[in-house]
Write the structure tokens for this entry.
Amino acid sequence: MKWIFIEDNEFDRDILDISFNEIKPELCADFSYTFYNNGTDFLKGLSNLECEIVISDMNLPDMNGIEILKKFKENDRLKDTPFLLFSTSLHQEEIEKAYALGADNYILKPDGFKATCETLLKIYSNYAK
Amino acid sequence: MNIAKKICLLGDETVGKSSMAKRFADNAFDDKYKATIGVKIFNKNLEIHDGKSINFVVWDIQGGRDLISSPQQYYRGASALIFVCDITNEESLKAIDYYLGIVSEKYPLAKKMLLINKIDLVKDSSTVLSFKEKHAPSFNFIFSTSAKTGKNVIEAFTNLGTIL
């Protein structure tokens, strides 16, 4: 099972790394994840992309998570792959737009290591087949 | 007059918060359980009385006790908090006291309604009655509901609307 994170913030990537290391015993043996720094690089590789879940930060240097989501869901091969958004804020219009475009979850970015572990495990148990 | 009000659902996992929101907003029910992670928003306009209608902006927030006690902002600005419990799940009934304690401290101005859900699964109503009596002083409204059949769902929101 492969997850993809689109996350530019180095600190947040470190937290994710540490959290995945902590919860590793609860994940399937073939679990892996990859980071992209920005939306442009991620979208460039869409035609060959193989993954089970995409989790994108809302605020990226080149575009926001909703723009990435829109382009991702336009891809016929990938449109049924779960796409989750992590955000540091909760704006009603933004949340509604995300779901209207096919987002599977809109999540306030977990605050700290413990909350990150819990959130990742929730996502895993919801989507692991 | 149409006013928008943010309403948040809270309660343990699997008590039926998402089903409640879906029943209210879309008059639909899905038997398949999928845990909510993060938040989803449902909208519905409801006429309350004398031409007053409310746009209920219902925030269906992931279940469990972590978020309500965390400093995160899911519940901020809510006009009302709807506590949901499952009458067949004793832990979810006990959890209401926990949620009440946090809410009273952090969101003292929000109106509070309790929905005792999955009432369609109960034959003996004595548990429901005693639970209602116990909690009556703490809530503006208490309803026994079934998101599955739709029982009392619109009635509950309509009543809540009268005090928003």
Notes: Chain A has a mean pLDDT of 95.
